[in-house]
Amino acid sequence: MSIFWNKRTAALSPYVPGEQPGSRKFIKLNTNENPYPPSPRAAAAIEQILAEQKPGESRGGVLRLYPDPLCGEFRTAAAAAHGVKPEQVFPGNGSDEVLAFAFGAFFESGEKAGGPLLFPDITYSFYPVYAGLWDIPYKTPPLRDDFSIALEDYTGPSRGVIIANPNAPTGRVLPPESLRRLAETLEERRQVLILDEAYVSFGAESLDLRIKDHPNLLVVHTLSKSAALAGLRIGYAIGNEALIEGLFRVRDSFNSYTMDRLALAGGTAAISDGAYYRDINKKVIATRERTAAALKDLGFTVIPSAANFLFTRPPEGTGGAGFFQALRNRGILVRRFATPRIADYLRVSIGTDEDMDAFLEACRSLIVHSLHEDHRRRGF
Ligand code: PMP
Questions:
Q1: Which end of the chain is more exposed for a tag (fewer CB within 10 A), N or C?
Q2: Is ligand 1 within 6 A of the CB of residue 235?
Q3: With a 6 A CB cut-off, is 123 part of the ligand 1 pocket?
């Protein structure tokens, strides 16, 4: 708290990202990064720009120049990757920024503007933060007991809907046809449906091509997970030209250069190398399935996942908080949300096969340890 904060700043409830550890070496399974390196073409494109920076030359290289505010090359490459037009792509500094702009561009603020914005009670925890930032009232229909989204809860009065598919942190996926029908229902009411497809490349079907049929559908992607480029901060929305123009209006009321030249060059090269990513993501999917099976064998509850993480509950008696801390003590970072319904669950990002072997080994020994403790307490 500070007397210098205005009321808006004082009222914010900012998002808290997963831990990025300092010097201690962890097996890092807590922020859904891809364990494999990005396309070599991305690094080469960045290196080329850096090589052009000749020290001592007054006009060497392009870094002294502002980047292209329209991000033409990146949008052309992203459009080609998705089979849409460049005018139907809006790039940003991570999909977090794209989502922040989208909330501001498409969802009305203030109590009087009609029904609330709708998103599930258990989903990406940045959504309520954006709603708070823009003063958008919202309601959070509960997931079913099996953590699936009950889409019938999203067809009533609202000022728009945002759904992550696959959902985070559960990893559960919805059939594309039911999402398409929801887009249709909302279109009749002149409301926007944002589909956050951050994890779609790990086993779900994108609705990217459906933007042609639904002028109210905004599909949001990121290069952080599927393209292994979380460090470059690149996300983008795909939607009808008028939605994209709305996003540019908001962006250009903040900062016209949200994407720097290195990110644009690396991102353009990366998004054009689809074969490379399909290959590494196939490996992530195979490791996920193997890890899920091994966790079930250990007595964990495992929610079916189409993402690059598993949402899982350790066997009875071990407890989410204790298990999280015990893993951390053994050098393994996972994510836990201390919120209703899911406090005993852990979200475990899929690492390399070796990472997951170490994780499974730690789980095995913690369960044995907790059984011993239990027996000791009961006097066996
Ligand atoms: N959407 C979801 C569902 C996410 O889990 C994340 C990652 N935290 C993002 C969007 C944001 O990803 P980024 O800003 O790295 O593109």
A1: N
A2: yes
A3: no
**Chain centroid, CA 98 distance in Å:** 11
Give pLDDT, residue 23: 75
pLDDT digits (tens, 9 = 90+) for 117-136: 999 999 999 999 999 999 99
Q: Is the pLDDT of residue 40 over 90?
A: yes
Q: Which residues share a beta bridge with 117?
A: 138
DSSP notation for 6-28: -HHHHH-----PPP---SS--EE
> Among the atoms of ligand 1, which is closest to the Cα of residue 31?
8
The pLDDT score that the predictor gives to residue 336 is 95
- Listed residue (216, 99, 71) closest to 164, CA to CA: 99
Q: Which of 240, 272, 304 is the last residue of a domain?
A: 272
Which amino acid residue places its CA nearest to atom 8 of ligand 1?
A: 31
Lowest-confidence region among 53-57, 198-202, 270-274, 340-344:
53-57
Q: Encoding tokens for residue 278?
A: 């399909």
Are residues 162 and 181 part of one domain?
Answer: yes
Residue with tokens 């590494």: 280
**Ligand 1 within 6 A of CB of 96:** yes
> Using a 6 Å cutoff on CB, does residue 197 contact ligand 1?
no
In this structure, the strands spanning 27-28 and 332-333 are parallel
Q: Ligand 1 in contact with 166 (CB < 6 A)?
A: no
Model pLDDT, residue 58: 65
Q: Give the distance (Å) from ligand 1 centre to CA of residue 198.
A: 6
| Spatial separation of the C-alpha atoms in residues 206 and 278, rounded to whole Å | 14
What span, in angstroms and rounded, lies between the C-alpha atoms of 128 and 137?
9
Residue 318 pLDDT greater than 80, yes or no: no
Ligand 1 closest atom vs CA 93:
14
CATH of the domain at 348: 3.90.1150.10
pTM above 0.85, yes or no: yes
Same-domain pairing of 166 and 295: no
Q: Which of 50, 92, 85 is nearest to 267 (CA)?
A: 92
Pocket test for ligand 1, best of 222, 236, 259 (most atoms within 8 A of CB): 222
Whether 2 is in a domain gets the answer no
